[in-house]
Amino acid sequence: MKLIKMLSYVVAGLLASAGASASPLVNGDFSTGDLSGWTSNGSVNVIDWGFNTTGSALTGDLFAGLGTDVPTTLTETFHLDAGDTFTGQAQWIGWDYLPNNDYGSVSIVDDTTTNSTTLFSGDIATYGDFGSSAVNSFQFIAPTTGDYTITAAVANAGDNSSPSELQVANFAVTAVPVPSAFWLFGTVLAGFAAGKRRFGNAE
Asked: Which residues form the signal peptide (predicted)?
């Protein structure tokens, strides 16, 4: 009986832990039509005429303009379990020319270790005067369980006129599949329970 109880606690705990990570990201596709779940600074809007043609067809649109090297930002902190995959899309749209090397990026930070990973970046030097990138898709697999912060940012450089633009869309998290070991515990537990019943009936 003690072993059965122990197994039941293990299974319940593991399954509850797996289920808790099902929806760690809020409004990643901007389907609410606004920035619910996000924190923004500067000119950030949700538009329906951006590059996005999949999912909710809504796009987060950031414009520089807060000052030289002062980024407009869009951020959200959420939980990932080790092995979870974070995905998204971004496009750089330059509205300036060299030597004013406006720049933008999408990055994710592990809030525990402060390790930062750049998922996308663009600037005038890379894509040319008034140039744009293609729509870039990216993914990040969480190395450890914990909280992570996604940040999209764009800034003017050299001056604070002709602000460049960064568009982002379709942020999503795919949870790591529940390990087969979880179900093995359940099978063992069921076997013990069935054996216990048969033994009791035999008495």
From this structure: 1-22
